[in-house]
Amino acid sequence: MTRTFFTIVIPTLNEEKRLPTLLSDLEKQTFNDFSVIVVDAMSSDATIRLARQCHTRVVISNKKNVSYQRNLGAKHSQSEWTVFMDADNRIPKDYLQKIKEYVEIYSPDILSSWIVPDSRLKKDKITATLMNIFMEINKNASRPYILESMIFIKTKIFQTLGGFNTDIPWGEGEDMLGRAHKMGFKFEMLRDPKYTYSFRRLKKIGTFKMLQKISQIEIIKMVKGDLTKNDAHFFYPMNGGTFYKNGEEPKMTLQKFISILFQDKEISSKSLKSFKKNIDPWKSLFR
Ligand SMILES: Nc1nc2c(ncn2[C@@H]2O[C@H](COP(=O)(O)OP(=O)(O)OP(=O)(O)O)[C@@H](O)[C@H]2O)c(=O)[nH]1
Ligand SMILES: [Mg+2]
């Protein structure tokens, strides 16, 4: 494999609908010193065939775990920069060109960029703007917020950090950035260029429902310290493209939420009753 400026790693699971569009965006880039590795978790649809048709290197992962797949892809990277992109992204044709120019002038260690939604709906534009503002105000925090859908990182630094933690079901990018921050690596969030972030989940389950779910996750994290892999599935099922073909949204009832919250703890029926009474202000999270 020749040593390109960027190596782009795309983890996939049943992404026959989305991946070809991203690969075609990549083909149209004005800067083309990059290679692409699709790390597929044994898709049952045409993902692998379509990736190969586009002359893309495909690595098969024997584990269905996005972080594991990203780490596996990065092992094959011989570039100075490794880039993690999701199959449901779109990028404008000067995206890589602008990033390359930026890194050559400012030499950051890790970076990402602002997003635009894949929709013309006003509510999606507002949501994307709020996400951009959130990323902007957090960029100097000790644990900056980042979307795993677009991460540029120097390959050596990725290795030093030990890659993504494969045991984390949620926020693995943030976790890695937290470790990078501690070691003094330089992170940047670019306002320009922007990439198109897929709002397919919002389309499938609804914006308000998504906000409910994020609030529920944050409550679990506050109480339990973290979210287990089992819990995560109830809030944010990760099945790649499969979820959008035939995936069912797991229903989160107040009862289920309480059982997740207290599953490792002994709790008397009296305190459970009092908890249910006290949760009244939070009830809107379960409608
Ligand atoms: N192996 C594996 N890959 C996955 C899984 N879920 C997603 N992927 C792939 O990992 C990348 C990120 O997944 P997405 O489903 O886009 O994650 P997301 O953006 O948080 O969620 P969506 O809102 O559903 O798009 C995609 O390229 C997927 O194809 C999974 O459960 N297992
Ligand atoms: Mg996505």
How would you characterize the overall build of this protein?
With 287 residues, this protein is of the alpha/beta class. The protein folds into two domains: 6-198, Spore Coat Polysaccharide Biosynthesis Protein SpsA, Chain A (Alpha-Beta Complex); 201-286, no CATH class. Helix content is 44%, strand content 16%. The protein has a seven-stranded mixed beta sheet, with helices on both faces. The chain is globular. It binds guanosine-5'-triphosphate and magnesium ion. Residues 86, 88, 149, 198 line the site of magnesium ion (MG).
Provide key terms for this protein:
287 residues; alpha/beta; Spore Coat Polysaccharide Biosynthesis Protein SpsA, Chain A; 2 domains; 13 helices; 44% helix; binds guanosine-5'-triphosphate; binds magnesium ion
How are the elements arranged and paired?
Blueprint (H helix, E strand, L loop, with lengths): L5 E7 L6 H9 L6 E7 L6 H7 L3 E4 L5 H10 L5 E5 L9 H12 L3 E8 L4 H17 L11 E5 H7 L10 H11 L4 E11 L2 H6 L1 H18 L4 H7 L6 H5 L7 H8 L7 H10 L9
Parallel strand pairs: 1-2, 1-4, 2-3, 5-7
Antiparallel strand pairs: 4-6, 5-6
The structure holds guanosine-5'-triphosphate (GTP) and magnesium ion.
Structure summary, number of beta strands: 7
Beginning-to-end CA distance, first to last residue: 53 Å
Largest sheet: 7 strands, mixed
The parts where pLDDT drops under 50 for at least 5 residues are none
CATH topology of the largest domain: Spore Coat Polysaccharide Biosynthesis Protein SpsA, Chain A
Quickly give the structural class. alpha/beta
CATH architecture of the largest domain: Alpha-Beta Complex
Spatial arrangement of strands, main beta sheet: 3-2-1-4-6-5-7
Question: What overall form do the CA principal axes indicate?
Answer: globular
The top-level CATH class of the largest domain is Alpha Beta
| Percent range for β-strand residues | 15-25%
CATH superfamily of the largest domain: Spore Coat Polysaccharide Biosynthesis Protein SpsA, Chain A
Overall average pLDDT: 91
Cofactors, ions, other ligands: guanosine-5'-triphosphate, magnesium ion
Main location: membrane
Subcellular location: Cell membrane
Pfam families: Glycos_transf_2
Domain Glycosyltransferase 2-like: 7-128
